[in-house]
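In this supplementary section we document a worked example of the pipeline. Step one takes a protein sequence of length 295 as its only input; no multiple sequence alignment statistics are reported here. Step two produces a three-dimensional model, which step three serialises into structure tokens for compact storage. The input and output of this example are shown verbatim.
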Amino acid sequence: MNDFLDLFISYLAVEKGLSANTQQAYSRDLIRYLDFLEHQHKTTPAAVTAADVAMYLGVLKEGGIAPRSRARALSAIRMFHKFLMIEQYADCNPAGIIESPRIHPTLPHFLTTREVDALFAACHGTADETIRDRAMLELLYATGLRVSELVGLKLREVNLQAGYLMTIGKGNKERLVPIGEPACRAVTDYLQGVRYKHDPTTTNSYLFLSRLGDAMSRQAFWNLIKKRAYQAGISKNISPHTLRHSFATHLLENGADLRSVQILLGHADLSTTQIYTHVTRERLKRLHQEIHPRG
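The serialised model returned by step three reads:
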């Protein structure tokens, strides 16, 4: 069955145009699934039944895998078997009738505006690394980019004079995002004083570079934001996505409409963006309880 996995991953890349990160996520989920099928002596697509898929999800549940992760695994399995049908390696999709695990929605974590200011203030000084970190954090909060979109930004995709950048998000979709003056200034400082020290021959096309002149990795930026949050005295468990959540939440709190926030975030479905309306409602509720005399 592993031969079919290789074909499927190629299909995701060529036909679906999915990113390398998405391909890796599908691959991880399906490797575990195919190992399970091998132990069940299911060696051909036609031999796999709905009962096998249900049994596998049961194994994940017993192993303590969270509902959201089980739902993601089922989604990968469904697409895999659908691919096998398209390519005529199987007559049916055994995962098609399996219900997805019920997921209890969790509200995204975000920073207050005061905490955002403290995060930026932690990047004070004239050291090259500090100037770069400030530019990356300012740009992330100003645009709500995903971390993969931030570290993948190319020089040619950022127009500081116009105050816009172009990014390629999920599903290989392009979108234009306004930047804002503070982020423009921070990125300008980085470009004028730091970036080309690490790329003197201007051979690297990426906007943000490491000290070695390579493109920043997602893991490097993850470590960067953890370090700056610690320096800022922020006790919350912060990640790059926390600034994306903060971007969306603060826009809605200040009167932005949901559709505009959807476009800026690059969400394909408005229902994905609606989670932030719950965040703002919960915050208003807490404020009412704290401030109202009969709260």
